[in-house]
Design brief:
Structural class: alpha/beta
Distance between the termini: 25 Å
InterPro entries: DDE_dom, IS_Transposase, Transpos_IS6
Largest sheet: 5 strands, mixed
Pfam family, one: DDE_Tnp_IS240
GO molecular function: DNA binding
Keywords: DNA recombination, DNA-binding, Transposition
Low-confidence stretches: 1-15
Number of helices: 9
Strand order of the largest sheet: 5-4-3-6-7
Number of strands: 7
Order of helices and strands: EEHHHEEEHEHEHHHH
Radius of gyration: 20 Å
Helix content: 40-55%
Organism: Rhizobium lusitanum
Length: 248
């Protein structure tokens, strides 16, 4: 018997654990490996070592395949659960990402509480790119914001006037810190990965990482210790629930 993330994995002779189709490791172990990778700034080799310490022999290449295959599936389930649940004040920002010597722009939107609404990697920083992000946001959230906050990039104003003319727009660099700070976790992971290897890999990572980060964003400084433990337990329970919904 072994314990993984609070889950007791009983010997196969006692209880047959849940499995994803065509995968020999139990679903709990796969979900745990994916959770480790996206929840903490770890490399695939770090996750391999952590699993090995718990008696689970799996290569870092396999962890990479699990993260790519199941990470997006788990993120999709989380996105469906949270649709329409975010605050009506959105903050938008963009940051530079260099991939194989080519400059890209990572556009991101968060709500006033810091939850990631969506992120989109694009090769341009213009009105067309801003329109793509806003269309993606409106489709994904199913609602328009009450207020949109951005820096002074004029592309935001032009795109907003075309798509959401009735939405209040506040354009000032000093009030957009929430969106700017939301880039920091991705910057840390970018350094840990020694840069993203391709635009596809970057988009896949940010699409997954943002949704999982939302689930475990608990705003600890505003909580008592007991409340924090309860919310953390709820987040872990939600994670276990959505990972068992996958038919893969």
């Amino acid at each position: 018997m072994s314990v993984v993330n609070g889950l007791v994995l009983v010997a196969m002779t006692e209880i047959s654990p849940a499995h994803f189709r065509r995968h020999r490791f139990p679903a709990e172990i796969i979900a745990y490996a994916v959770w480790l990778y996206y929840r903490f700034p770890l490399s695939f080799r770090d996750v391999e070592d952590l699993l090995a310490e718990r008696g689970i022999e799996v290569s870092f290449q396999t962890v990479s395949e699990w993260a790519a295959k199941f990470g997006l599936k788990f993120a999709h389930q989380l996105r469906r659960r949270s649709r329409g649940q975010f605050a009506d004040k959105w903050q938008l920002d963009e940051m530079v990402v260099t991939i194989k010597g080519k400059k890209f722009w990572l556009w991101r939107a968060v709500d006033v509480n810091g939850y990631v609404l969506d992120a989109l990697l694009q090769s341009r920083r213009n009105k067309r790119a801003a329109l793509r992000l806003m269309r993606k946001l409106l489709k994904g959230q199913g609602t328009t914001p009450r207020v949109m906050i951005t820096d002074k990039l004029r592309s935001y104003s032009a795109a907003k006037s075309e798509l959401m003319p009735g939405v209040e727009h506040r354009s000032h660099k000093g009030i957009n810190n929430r969106a700017e700070n939301s880039h920091l976790p991705v910057r840390r992971r970018e350094r840990r990965m020694m840069r993203f290897k391709s635009a596809r890999q970057c988009q896949r990572f940010i699409s997954t990482h943002g949704q999982i980060a939302n689930l475990f964003l608990l705003h600890r400084k505003h909580l008592t210790a007991a409340d924090h433990r309860q919310l953390r337990s709820n987040a872990n329970a939600t994670w276990r629930q959505i990972t068992m919904l996958i038919n893969a």
